[in-house]
Amino acid sequence: MTSIFPAAFVDLEPFAEWSLETEGERYDKRLTSSMDEMQAFYDAAMPHLEAAKDHLDALDLAALPEAETRLLWLLYSLVNVSFPVEVWRQPRVPDSGAANMDAIVQPAV
Amino acid sequence: MAHFAKPAEGSWTEHYPELGTAPVSYEDSISPEHYERERDAIFRKTWLNVGRVEQLPRVGSYFTRELHAARTSVIVVKDKDGTVRAFHNICRHRGNKLVWNDFPGVEVEGTCRQFTCKYHGWRYDLSGDLTFVQQEEEFFDLDKADFGLVPVQAEVWEGFIFVNLDPENTTSAKDYLGKIGAGIEGYPFGEMTEVYKYRATVGANWKLFIDAFAEFYHAPVLHAKQAVADESKKLSGYGYEALHYEIDGPHSMVSSWGGMSPPKDESMVKPIERVLRSGLFGPWDRPIDVGELPAMINPAKSKVWGVDSYVLFPNFMLLVWAPGWYLTYHYWPTAYNEHIFEGALYFVPPKNASERLAQELAAVTFKEYALQDGNTLEATQTMIESRAVTEFPLNDQEVLLRHLHKTARDYVAADGETAVDLAGAR
Ligand code: FES
Ligand SMILES: [Fe+2]
User: I need a labelling partner for B361 at 20 to 30 A (CA). Which of A91, B114, B292, B383 fits?
Assistant: First the structure.
């Protein structure tokens, strides 16, 4: 099976749509996903987190190959969904109504 | 039960007797007239932080800042000598806004050799001097030396760029920041250049959002649903007490405990925090040795110190976190009941993906807390505006709020007196 991720992480291919470059995209994806969808992604990705960190830490962060960059973006989404999955049981932070905050500067990688 | 010592007077508030202990009016936050007076008395008179030196990496680097409250827009630029300068963003010919792209109200940044007006092509060099006038011979005795950009005082303090729109101002930014500013000098802000910045429009007076970040009395309650259940219960039972408060002139600070980085008991934090070794208080592993802290950082020299929050009047907050990173908040008023909030996190650049992920978790956590903080504000604004209640009791852990609103009222009152004096003298 071909994958957008490094070979060791081919299991994550069904969740490739969570590999998103910007915080804005990741946050929107979270708000428009159901708890079941986020739970499925979390359950699949969380067991790979330690191995993924080790894999990426062996490389130069400023010069990651394409597949590794995709993997890192996926992990950023994992961070983003961890809040609803681990604590709130809803996509939005509780008691935040329609409050909104845009990321206007974020790291290049 | 008191966990941390208070001053001999028995409370932080009474340590600063000019503050009083009576319930306070929030009229300064709901009165359109008061806001109009703040614009001149505060935003056109005090030093305003508009950015960091890292935003101007080379000669010709510039950015613009829309200062609605101060009724102007400024250009901040690094000139050919490497000096940071600021100018009102207005062309001397017929007043077009000089630097902007597609939308005149949107802030821009970039690098250039000179500024060229979009309207008739007048050009200014990086020092603000007028260097070219289209069809100069058509003008009448025009001496280009008389038509440079209007300068604004600019000063760099610890890498933070400040401007002061009062041409009469004679106090340096460093002196203006007083004892609290002096007590932070030397912290390695310049090494923390990995930036995450967020912006939101908030439907509340600018001071109300400072209030929300200048007290932690709310934290165990409003943010209860952020923590895992046991931890949340423990925190609300504990309540909140600061390690130290300090007030000096218009500025103030609160020093807070925070044993969550790393936590004593890892089972008390979320699974992702355990794997990424990070959370609200930042990455658990210190990126650099910051050495001995300046006097006004962790002033109580507490072992359980977590974060210090500085309210640098009027609209700039700086938070220095024990694990070695900092946060800034800016509140840019656009109306008596609206402002633009900006929050930015600054970390030592990550050496690898693990460090980057730890910072990502801290940044996302910050945003989620700020969304909760911001969301209470529009409701507060509209209810205070009802004037159904006009006086509010503030407790000792809200001492900085008492000071902030008093400072704003005092600036407005002092400016009124000056205006009256001048009128009398005429
Ligand atoms: S307004 Fe700028 S050149 Fe005319
Ligand atoms: Fe808060």
Answer: B292
B375 strand-pairing partners: none
Sheet holding B72-78, edge to edge: B47-52, B160-164, B151-157, B84-88, B72-78, B61-67, B109-111
Q: What is the CATH class of B48-170?
A: mainly beta
Interface predicted TM-score of the whole assembly (ipTM), two decimals: 0.98
- E strands, B182-303, are 194-202, 244-248, 251-257
Domain limits for position A18? 9-85
- What confidence tens digit (pLDDT) does each residue in B302-352 have? 999 999 999 999 999 999 999 999 999 999 999 999 999 999 999 999 999
Query: Which residues of chain A does B198 touch, with a Cβ-Cβ cutoff of 8 Å?
Result: 101-104
- Quote the pTM value: 0.95
Nearest by Cα to A79 from B194, B282, B360: B360
Q: Are B179 and B286 in contact (CB under 8 A)?
A: no
Terminal Cα distance for chain B, rounded: 59
Residue A44 within any structural domain of the chain: yes
- Closest ligand, as measured to the CA of B122: 1
Beta-carbon separation of B228 and A87 below 8 A: yes
Query: What fold does the segment set B13-41+176-414 form as a domain?
Result: Naphthalene 1,2-dioxygenase Alpha Subunit; Chain A, domain 1 (3.90.380)
**Which residue of B lies nearest to A73 if distances are taken between CA atoms?**
B357
Pocket of ligand 1 contains residue B96 by CB under 6 Å: yes
List the Cα angle B409/B414/B418 in 5-degree steps: 150
Please give the structure tokens belonging to residue B36: 């109009």
> Is residue A48 in a domain?
yes
A53 inside domain: yes
Distance, in Å, from the CA atom of B233 to the CA atom of B211, rounded to the nearest integer, reads 24
Q: For chain A, how many structural domains are there in total?
A: 1
Helix/strand/coil (H/E/C) assignment for every residue in chain A: CCCCCCHHHHHHHHHHHHCCCCHHHHHHHHHCCCHHHHHHHHHHHHHHHHHHHHHHHCCCHHHCCHHHHHHHHHHHHHHHHHHHHHHHCCCCCCCCCCCCCEEEECCCC
